[in-house]
Amino acid sequence: MQLANKDWSQINAAKAVWNNCKVQLCLWHAKKLIKKRLSDNSKPKHNPYNSIEANSKIIELFTKYFHLHPLIPIKHGEFLSSKDIWKLSIKEMYDYCYNNNLKYVWSYMWCNWYKFNL
């Protein structure tokens, strides 16, 4: 297992040295990058939103699913597979963004954090 800060050169180097290495993103770095992107103070290019409220909820949802693991039961001995955790995290984040008209936030989250090939 290799912890990474989403630096692709670091991730690729780890995979080159250790063939079947599982790369895990560091939660602290992930939250830092998401907060930085969402708190950009430049004039909104597409749609304005309540950044304080939305950013807080987005970080909360991201952190919630970051802490789930297939070997840790969610309640009363119920376990979720990695794929189920991934699907649930996508659905909840997508629904939040959709219901709050945050299509550009969803686009960022999908492209940078939720695509399965990360």
How would you concisely characterize the structure shown here?
The chain has 118 residues and is mainly α. It has helices at residues 8-17, 27-38, 51-66, 82-99, 103-114; strands spanning 2-4, 23-25. Helix 1 (8-17) links the parallel strand 1 (2-4) and strand 2.
Structural summary, described in words:
By secondary structure, this protein is mainly α. The protein has one domain (2-114). Helix content is 58%, strand content 5%. The chain has 5 helices and 2 strands. It has helices spanning 8-17, 27-38, 51-66, 82-99, 103-114; strands spanning 2-4, 23-25. A two-stranded parallel ribbon has the order 1-2. Helix 2 runs antiparallel to helix 3, helix 3 (51-66) packs antiparallel against helix 4 and helix 4 runs antiparallel to helix 5. The two termini are 15 Å apart. The model has no long low-confidence stretch (mean pLDDT 79).
